[in-house]
Amino acid sequence: MKCLFLQASGSRKPKRKRGSKKRMEGHTTITSLYPDGEPKSPKGAKTTVVNQCGYYVRENIPISFRLWKKSKATDSDNNIVPETEKEMLWADVK
Fold it and tell me: Contact 53/89 with Cβ under 8 angstroms?
């Protein structure tokens, strides 16, 4: 009879270490889009845009805002990022 032993540690893949996200240098020109509006080419453009959006939010939006947009469960507008801040971020991304 064979015995199988499971290792409690070391059997999982090691977690990826998160790198620091910095502001992108230069520009990326998106040359084509999918019908739903996502970037098709150049390859990796979607990831670049998402990373830059995260960078701008972390750098410019105070942590005191809890929500990005209003929902049915939202009881106070003080917890929502103001539209003026969103417009400023969008202008930076463009």
Answer: yes
Half-sphere exposure of 28 (CA within 13 A, CB side): 20
Helix (H, G, I), strand (E, B) or coil at 94: coil
Sign, CA dihedral 25-45-89-76, equals negative
- Cβ(30)–Cβ(45) below 8 Å: yes
The pLDDT of residue 84 is: 92
Q: Calculate Rg over the CA atoms of the chain.
A: 21
Q: Rounded to a whole number, what is the largest CA-CA distance in the chain?
A: 70
Q: Which residue has the higher pLDDT, 2 or 51?
A: 51
Question: pLDDT tens, 43-61?
Answer: 888 888 888 888 888 888 8
